[in-house]
Amino acid sequence: MKKITALATVLVLCAAHASAYENSYAGYSVKDGQPYYKLEAKKVYAYTNISSKKVYQNEEDLKNTAVNIVNYYTAEDMEQILGEKFSTAYFDAEYEKLALLERSQLNPKTVPAPLLELDKYAEHDSNGNLTIQSKVLKEKLEKLTPLIKTGKIAGKKAITISYLYKQGDVLVKIDTSLVSANDRLYLLSTVNTDQDLYAPKKDEKDADADADIDDIDTDDEGDENDEAKSAASAKEEMEKALEVENVFVRDVPAETMQRFDKAHTDLLKGFKAFTPTSTPKAISFTDAAAGKSVQLPDDWFYGQLNLRYKDKGTFYLTTASSMKQMQEVAANTDYDNIYSVLAIPASDPEYQQKFMELYTSGMRNVLEHWNHLLVTVSVDNINDADAKELLATPVANKLAVESFINDGLQRLKGFGNDYFALKDYKTNYDFTKEKALIGINADTQLLKDFAYNNKILLSCNQKAATAMLFIAKNGVKTEKSLEQQVNEWHF
User: Fold this and answer.
1) Neighbour tally for 229: CB within 10 Å
2) pTM for this entry
3) Coil, helix or strand at residue 475
4) How many H helices and E strands in the chain?
């Protein structure tokens, strides 16, 4: 009996470890429960609170998905942000100061509180971090009134900043708890949404539809009026969708607030700080369907979607690139211009021209700053019959596939415009009864000024299939270890 109990304990501990993310260099671990989506970079880890095993068992769960984000800052990072020395003792002193104000029912903003100035953290994001105070969200949060409170959550001293607001028809709550250990600061954030509370009722939708029908006019003057109304309406809808509005807790159903609070409390319960190691954590991702792992350059990030279909296998989609380059793209994006163009109705005579100008300027901004992109897709437990048919006659299938792909590439090479041109390509095919491999190496040119090399690998065996796309800007150095891993992405 004792042996059985001991074995059960070991299994439970192993299971708990398997469903936890750990960054020994950052000095923390967090129970993520095998999320269906996660993002990892040098100093940030984000994940959904819905498991990949459950995501398609109940689609209602997706409506209640929360996103958890963990950011960490070293004492050196915090000194740059605060302009003074930081330590856990410093945090504890700030915590007690704010707790005293709270007990005295005084506004925490009545005294200087550098730790609460989250916009300073956003300014520090270029150092490999990504916080909720990013450029777009920062502008929203500045219009809102946060609730600041102190207290122990899951046994941890936490200074929590909360925003509760409505955007469009969606209720949003953002909780960010600051905790400290080992002279490091951790930002633990949870973003919750509720799409039901402010959703238009069915009768409201019907009334709007009836109103649209009543407004129909068949004469030319009516058409012009309709277009003017449509343009004004589109602009109003766009502005309305972007507006944020403070919401009071008393106006939200208790069960909704309980769900929001539980999601954030679960994050803190699953968070554990420990003594950091001296070896930086390598950023890497694993695709279990392909049986491959890729270690990324130090300044890269990856986002991975992991869907486990009941009795149908697992689907993985992973995207990876440079965090710094992504932030440069975001920092140089003209969001106001995007919103203004999107508000123009398609019937406007200038819509097509303005839309293409927006597309071109947006693409140019991306291409000027983005040098690399890696995308992998894999699925296991594929239909054995289809796989066997593909692999049963490798010589014949190779000839058929080779003819089809080469014909398509040759046609594409003959097609070119100001936006895209295929300059050259090479192909490779390897078909056996055990596996099939298709390799394509293509040189492309975008917007005439940007040249890229594109590597595509497609392969399958009788159990799984995988695809890999790696795009690299010409003249930009690619780390040799990454290039080698990319070339080996096949069965």
Assistant:
1) 12
2) 0.86
3) coil
4) 15, 20
